[in-house]
Amino acid sequence: MKNIFKALTISVFILIMVFQSYAQRKRVATGKPGAETLKLEIEKIMRNGSLPDKAMLERLKKEYPVQHISTNTEKVGRGTAKTNVTQVSKASFTGKKLTEYVDKLLDRLEKKMDPEVVDIVNNIEKRTDTNSNIMSQLSYYLYLMESEDAALLLGGRTVLKDPLNDLSTNNFGAMLTSCGAAPQAIPILRGLVPHYKKNAMVLNNMGQAFASVGMGDSAMYYFAQCLMLEPKHAMANKTAANLTAEKGNKTEAVEYAKNSIEGGMTIEALELLDQLDPSSEKFDFLAHKKNIPDYFNIYKFKKPTLQRKHGQTEIVRAEQLAFMTEIDRMIENLSVSIQEEEQRSLAQTRETVKRAQEEAMRYGKINKMLFSPINQIATKVYTNRYINTAIPQEMQKIEEQYRSEIAYRKQTYENDILNITTQYVEKKSPYDCGEGKGNDCKILEQLTLEECKVKNARLDVFLEACATAAERYDQRQLQLARERFFFNSKWGYLLGTDPHMANAQYYHAAKDYLINIRKVVGFKPEDPFCLQLEKMLETYRFEDLVKPYCPINSQLDFGAISLKINCKESIISLKLDHFIKAAEFGKLSKKVAFWLDGVKLQLKSDHIKKSNTISVIKSWLDESIEVPSMLTPIRWKAGAKVEVSTTAYITFDGKGQIGDAGLKGAAMTSAWSGVDSEVAGSLSQVEAGVELGWGFNSGSYVTPKGMLAELWSGLGM
């Protein structure tokens, strides 16, 4: 994970290198290398194939690009005149006049130089085989090493060897300006301008030379042309800001300074803007950057899919879990890294303060500042209101709007689902999937599946609306998170007074970014309707699924008394057959015994209809037959039964009033077969019959039972 963060800090480190150039550009005489040091460095270069070290050249490219060399602010100040304008030649040198002019300059220069340094330049020229491109690069290498005399001598000789190489000529003129010899540079650069009127590099160097000798109007003329080609040219804008400020136009100077910072951020430009603009909003433009990297892709996160269809629930739920788990893991790792870096920084700060105290006690002064210039500038930039106030407020606002829209659509969706449920309750009300209601069960199954389809269609509409809202929110949230991280990762890093605190600040910015992007996980997935029902219908019949579950289903026999209890009804019966034996003792006549045979008294409580029925039942026929075991496979059981009965009944409703009374007769036949076992479902049974009767409330009726009922329904009767 830390490697990812380090990759993201490349731009920050480049920025630091630019700021460090502030100190490197302070070319004081006491810091220049001696002839021996210069000789050793050049020898090392020659062993590498006559080219400077790649790392040094990269640094050279960052600080003093071959395309233009910046004016040394320490030598020429902020555009203040250091030279009498009358000393500036109005000549324009090219061709032979250029070489004669450069030759005279080098002659005067060489006479003032250390002979050992001249020998080093002679050796370089000889060993490079007068290759002007290599000589030009090496001259800038010498310039970077602060060996200015050697750099100018080699750069001038490059022009003499190849006067048609305008890039080398331009660079030599720019070096002269940077080394405090702008009057000598102007005729050289002026000779290039007519051929490079659309070249920002040449125009800028011409303007820098005029600025160095105090010819502000001439400098601004060339800067204006340069900025027409490159509006954000860093050096042209910075010097233009200085010149404009000296004329008292601070408003325009501030704009130049801002353009300079946007073109190539340097501590000088930042300090210049800080001096020109006393307002607290002066650095706000740094917070409104375009083309900010998409850190979400750099982190290699997989944004969870937004659920748009009812069938995507499980995929979306899994992706959301993986997304949040990974981000939470990284946040935890960052928290550990922050704590470690802050502890190291604290230890280093204590050591720095201790050394500073010792220096103050011993020498009466402190050589090293505890806070660098960039720390001080970063403090002013980092407190930007847009990043630290406006963005958090905007994030809160868009989240509230997003949550509010989801809640509104959720409520509307739930109301619609309730209406759909009510509609289908009414559609289903005429049908009953009870015993003997096969056709009703089929209709109820169709209506139930249709209801599921309608609800899922409404669910898809709800999900699409939520996904659209989530897309808008995610896009804005990610943009704000990018802006905040882009700003805080740089300026927070620069706040660090030591590398450890800088790292801690960077990790804080990364943690904040992760917390913000965690919110784009999406809305809560919704389960589809009837998913379990559809799966169960692959195995079970609909009527088996809609039967209410009943935990009680018992039947007990105590001689003449039998008891049956379940969730639908409770039945207690008294069989009068047991009293027939009394006739044998003369206590009952045979005629009475005949009528008692097959008769039972029954009390039935219907728990669903809240009614009680008292019945007298006379069984006229109750015969059963089983196939002999010798004719069937081992433990196989089969048989049939026929019943004919008559019933007189009276029914009381839940209020104790008579609801119905009458007579009914029934004839039923059944057959069974299966394994002789106590395991439920081991026997298969079919039955068929008919029941007819009359009641003073229910009237007369004929009702088929069992298979006859299904056949009756199938015929539409």
Strand content: 5-15%
- Distance separating the two termini: 75 Å
User: What is the mean pLDDT?
Assistant: 79
Helix percent band: 55-70%
Account of the 3D structure:
This protein has 717 residues and is α+β, with helices and mostly antiparallel strands. The chain contains 26 helices and nine strands. It has helices at residues 2-8, 10-24, 35-47, 54-63, 73-76, 95-112, 115-127, 132-144, 148-161, 166-178, 182-192, 200-212, 216-229, 234-246, 250-263, 267-276, 295-298, 313-363, 373-382, 385-428, 438-495, 499-517, 531-536, 542-546, 590-596, 707-714; strands at residues 553-558, 561-566, 569-575, 599-606, 611-626, 636-652, 658-675, 683-695, 699-706. The protein has a nine-stranded antiparallel β-sheet. A hairpin with a 5-residue loop joins strand 6 and strand 7. It is rod-shaped.
Could you list some keywords that capture this structure?
alpha+beta; 9-stranded antiparallel β-sheet; 57% helix
Give me a quick take on this structure.
Helices cover 57% and strands 14% of the residues. The protein has helices at residues 2-8, 10-24, 35-47, 54-63, 73-76, 95-112, 115-127, 132-144, 148-161, 166-178, 182-192, 200-212, 216-229, 234-246, 250-263, 267-276, 295-298, 313-363, 373-382, 385-428, 438-495, 499-517, 531-536, 542-546, 590-596, 707-714, and strands at residues 553-558, 561-566, 569-575, 599-606, 611-626, 636-652, 658-675, 683-695, 699-706.
